[in-house]
Amino acid sequence: MCASASDSGNFPVSLPNPGVSERELRAVTGNLPMVTPLSHLAVLEISGADAETFMQGQFTQDIRTLAPGVARFSAWCSVKGRMLANFVLYPVRENVYHLILAKDLAAFMPGRLRMFILRAKVQVSETSRALLGLSGAETPLPFPGMDVPTMALTTGAHDGIHAIRLPDTRLILTMPPQRLAETWNRLIDPDTTTPRVPTGQEIWQWQDIRAGLPWITAATSEAFVPQMADFEKPGVSFKKGCYVGQEVIARAQHLGKVKRRLYRLESGQPLAAGENLFSPACANQPDPVAGKVVTAAPSPGGGHAALAVLLETAATDTRQGGIDGPRLETQPVHPAET
Length: 338
Known about the structure:
- The chain has a domain at about 20-210: Probable tRNA modification gtpase trme, domain 1 (Gyrase A, domain 2), CATH 3.30.1360.
- Helix content is about 15%, strand content about 30%.
- The chain has helices at about 20-30, 50-55, 105, 110-115, 180-190, 200-210, 230-235, 245-255, and strands at about 35, 40-45, 70-75, 85-95, 95-100, 125, 130-135, 155-160, 160-165, 170-175, 195-200, 260-265, 275-280, 290-300, 305-310, 320, 330.
- Strands 8-9-10-7-1-11 form a six-stranded mixed beta sheet, sandwiched between helices. A six-stranded antiparallel beta sheet has the order 16-13-14-15-12-17.
- A hairpin with a 2-residue loop joins strand 8 (about 155-160) and strand 9.
- It is globular, with a radius of gyration of 20 Å.
- About 40% of the residues are buried.
């Protein structure tokens, strides 16, 4: 069946306008060092003596593997196994953890998580930490003493600034808001050997699409089980004990009955998270929806790119706007092994 799966604060300095400028295009195509304000992301803090036990029973990742200096992708799911949110999770110090997730989910998630705390010694709150993304060519960071992580999903910290290395070599920096202007100015300082090119968040989101990293937002919360978004590979432990949604997720994994997967899309028209996609293959079905956009951004070279969860049998002829709409270029993020 073709039915679908049922700004942070004012930045203290001048930023690029929305869209992709010529300067940004040159930076991307030339693999120059870049820095991006990640105002579409936010940081939650979970702390307390029972924090690890609490998260172990709620999240898809094995929290016991979070040693100091280690980060993990994880998700929080409904009882039906659908992702309410996904995030990068890492320990800050003993009994204190930070989660990087979509900004538009950060406001609702603490209150909903608190419903499950009961008598546990756990606190959940949204922090005011600011985020910057570093991409492009590797250059020394202008922070003497910082232990910059070099391996995927490892972390470093110095003087209140945290650095998290993503699998595609990009870095996320989080910091107190009062450190943001100073940090930004250091990174773009033209007097340094290799100043970073400032870019808008659309560049970072396009890089997420290129890396196959699907961020769940308010528009797609509860739309997908992890396997649909190919998020089980980095974000789910199938060896840990019970957690919310575990039975559904484990059954989908072991029975192999997930018929939707993650695809990259290219379109001449803008795409939006949560937008339904269609296919003539579903024309005779009660619901002609063949998939849903997870995240989207302008492509630096022109057009628009997206990650979408699509019905595999309809992925070769996916349309935007309706079954008679323009056909989209699609490519599986993780092609099936032959």
